[in-house]
Amino acid sequence: MRIATYNINGIKARLPRLIEWLSETQPDVACLQEIKTSDETFPVKDIEDAGYGVIWHGQKGFNGVAILARGETPVEVRRGLDGEPEDEHSRYIEADVKGVRVASIYLPNGNPQPGPKFDYKLRWMKRLRDRAQQIWAEEVPAILAGDYNVIPRDKDVYSVKAMADDALMQPESRAAYRRILGDGWTDAILSKHPAGGVWTFWDYQMNAWPRDAGFRIDHLLLSPAAADRLIDAQVDKDFRGREKASDHAPTWVELAG
DNA sequence: ATGCCATATCACATATGA
């Protein structure tokens, strides 16, 4: 069973690419981020016509997450995180699908730092960890997948110097990510590619894609019951090079069974 | 400090992104 995460940077602009990716790679479950559309305007019919059931948590103009499942509709468990009722960003949706608990996560970018956006990022990461601990206590196979906007290690970025002041690799961002891993979650790409040099994002600017100047910010975190079934973890890098591509590439895990 | 590119919206200018 393959479970993927894909920040598509606008589902309307990316719809042909999304349908093509679903058709070519046939993921069993796909977590999307940055759908950038309201609940009312989500292209549910196009996705159903491609053979997928879907739940989504939209927002006009930016943010927005969804979970797709081949041949069935995910059973929603919750949308949004506790701890900050005034937070109206659509960044989290969670469902039970094909025997696995799956979350689609769009973690705040946090730039510029320092500042209120960075503070929001760190608060959001604490709220995510709180939810992850609740899921952990349920002892279900679980995958927390999405755009974490965190470069975990220096080996996960093309240039430490170029990104040194970016919110994505500040010590506080890394520490918050490490605390979640410290609770026992397995970073699937890290576990299969410990040497690093695996990118999931390439900026549209500064010729980043042709230079292969990327970094790793899209992550799949596995609970022990899911990690026990981990066969492979990869990036569909090819899709970053196509016409009208997202700046992220699809990233996925293959689980036994 | 800003633009570089891209997507979006009360669209020909501005917010957001990473």
Automatic annotation (TrEMBL):
GO terms for biological process: DNA repair. Probably binds two magnesium or manganese ions per subunit. The record marks N149 as: Transition state stabilizer. Residues 4-248 form the Endonuclease/exonuclease/phosphatase domain. Coiled coil: none annotated. The record marks D218 as: Important for catalytic activity. Gene3D superfamilies: Endonuclease/exonuclease/phosphatase. The active site is at Y106, D147 (proton donor/acceptor), H248 (proton acceptor). Mg(2+) binds at N7, E34, D147, N149, D247, H248. The record marks H248 as: Interaction with DNA substrate. InterPro entries: AP_endonuc_1, Endo/exonu/phosph_ase_sf, Endo/exonuclease/phosphatase, ExoIII-like. GO terms for molecular function: double-stranded DNA 3'-5' DNA exonuclease activity; metal ion binding. Keywords: Hydrolase, Magnesium, Manganese, Metal-binding. Pfam families: Exo_endo_phos. Its cofactor is Mg(2+); Mn(2+). It comes from Sphingobium vermicomposti. Its EC number is 3.1.11.2. Belongs to the DNA repair enzymes AP/ExoA family. This is Exodeoxyribonuclease-3.
